[in-house]
Amino acid sequence: MNKEASLADQSQAYIERYGVTPAEASHDMLLRMIEDMFADGLVTEVEPFPETDREFSKLLDVLRPLDANALREKLVISGWLLEPYGPDQMRCQECMYFLVHKRWCDLPELNLPAKADWWCRLWRI
Amino acid sequence: MANLLWLQGGACSGNTMSFLNAEEPSACDLVTDFGINILWQPSLGLELGDNVKTILQKCISGEIKLDIFVFEGTVINAPNGTGEWNRFCGRPMKEWVKELSDAADFVVAIGDCATYGGIPAMAPNPTESVGMQFLKRAKGGSLGAGFKSKSGLPVINIPGCPAHPDWVTQILVAVATGRAGDLTLDEFHRPKTFFSSFTQTGCTRNMHFAYKVSTTAFGQRKGCLFYDLGCRGPMTHSPCNRILWNRHSSKTRAGMPCLGCTEPEFPFFDLNPGTVFKTQTVMGVPKDMPTGVDKVGYIKLTAAAKGMAPAWAEEDIFVV
């Protein structure tokens, strides 16, 4: 999958690799898809961190119209990482959007599974 | 018998509407059970034109004893401090307010506009609106910081947008029945009996606040509204979850974030786009912490609370 691939192409690629698209994938399958993308070298837009709510809202405006199958774009725009970030070691575990028991990011614009030690730039406490 | 006069300046009549919905006691109870004689009120008064003016003049002269002067809405000073944009009975309302306040035993400001300026006094404040004795947090307002009515009390402020009807009628009854001495006011002249606790006190979403589970979209039947949807319940002094609205609910119980309308700064952030229904943060940390909580403590508490949160806290619990 490359950046230019259309959503349809991306969906087809998911089906070929996993037998299912992100929109239909189970929690564990989505986790696997995310981890595989990073293992394949996915680089996300970690900076700039949205310091103000206006900057934060602009990111949400970009994320909101994305299709549920646009998993790669969601991860890139949100600055997703599979590790804590920054000198304060910010991580999903303390983020307001993270549901600890469900291991789920409840931010409606992301709505993805996550792990406690992951992070993204939409983090807030 | 206590004579009460109620006038309205820069207002939407919301506090009058609220007052007319009072239940404990009701507006009728004030008259029938507590001996309050309503000389005139914008929605209840029968007199018109010169007949109203005569009542006001008699109150100022002392021919009619004015026990309680209630004011709703801002005091308008525009243009250029004249107050001509809000004329009433042949003169600027601000002049009636000054003279009637001097004549009254007690002065009661109802609603956020009369108390602190509210929405009309928001920047750029084209009507040059002020509250009776405050402009937002600054003392002064229309009557001046040092104003005291004949009873020796400053303006009794009952803020809110609107004020809860029972806050209004209960304070009026206290004053009319000679129990004003029982009232203690806070630094913003709010009766402490109502405004020492927080909106959060009694909120049914408190469990979610404790376990740091957030409501992330309107309509969710779980989560606390403070973390993401801009609820000001933990920082706002009001009894909205102790003295319920319509006897059975409140904004936060219905899933609506508290807007902080009983605080002098209301409306917060001058209603700039993106500031309403969105918790304001700096680097992901709320700008306004729950009262008395510092940033370090907040972060530590969050880490501990999320680590201990039970599974049910992530589920909808207010199911139909």
How would you portray this structure in words?
The complex is a heterodimer of chains A (125) and B (320). In chain A, 35% of the residues lie in helices and 5% in strands. Chain A has 125 residues and is mainly alpha-helical. The longest helix of chain A is centred in the first third of the chain and has 13 residues. Chain B has 320 residues and is of the alpha/beta class. In chain B, the strands form 5 sheets. Chain B has a 5-stranded parallel sheet, sandwiched between helices. Chain B has a two-stranded antiparallel sheet with strand order 4-8. Chain B starts with a strand and ends in a 12-residue tail after the last helix. At the A-B interface, helix 3 and strand 1 of A face strand 12, strand 13 and helix 9 of B.
Q: How many discrete structural domains of chain B?
A: 2
If helices are DSSP runs of H or I spanning 4 or more residues, what is the number of helices of chain A? Answer: 4
Distance from first to last alpha carbon of chain A: 34 Å
Q: What is the C-alpha radius of gyration of chain B, as a whole number of Å?
A: 21 Å
Strand content of chain B: 5-15%
Structural class of chain B: alpha/beta
| Overall outline of chain B | elongated
State the oligomer: heterodimer
**What composes the largest sheet of chain B?**
5 strands, parallel
Keyword list:
heterodimer, A: about 120 residues, mainly alpha, three-stranded antiparallel beta sheet, 4 helices, 3 strands, globular, B: about 325 residues, alpha/beta, Rossmann fold, Cytochrome-c3 Hydrogenase, Chain A, domain 2, 2 domains, five-stranded parallel beta sheet, two-stranded antiparallel sheet, 9 helices, 13 strands, about 25% helix
Task: Provide a concise account of the structure shown.
Chain A is mostly helical and 125 residues long. Chain A has helices at residues 7-18, 27-39, 53-63, 71-78, and strands spanning 98-99, 104-105, 112-113.
Strand-helix topology:
The complex is a heterodimer of chains A (125) and B (320).
Chain A: H1 7-18, H2 27-39, H3 53-63, H4 71-78, E1 98-99, E2 104-105, E3 112-113
Antiparallel strand pairs in A: 1-2, 2-3
Chain B: E1 2-8, H1 14-20, H2 27-32, E2 36-40, H3 50-61, E3 68-72, E4 75-76, E5 87-88, E6 91-92, H4 93-103, E7 106-110, H5 111-116, E8 129-130, E9 134-135, E10 138-139, E11 156-158, H6 165-176, H7 192-195, H8 206-210, E12 281-282, E13 285-286, H9 295-308
Parallel strand pairs in B: 1-2, 1-3, 3-7, 7-11
Antiparallel strand pairs in B: 4-8, 5-6, 9-10, 12-13
Helix pairs in contact in B: 1-6, 3-4
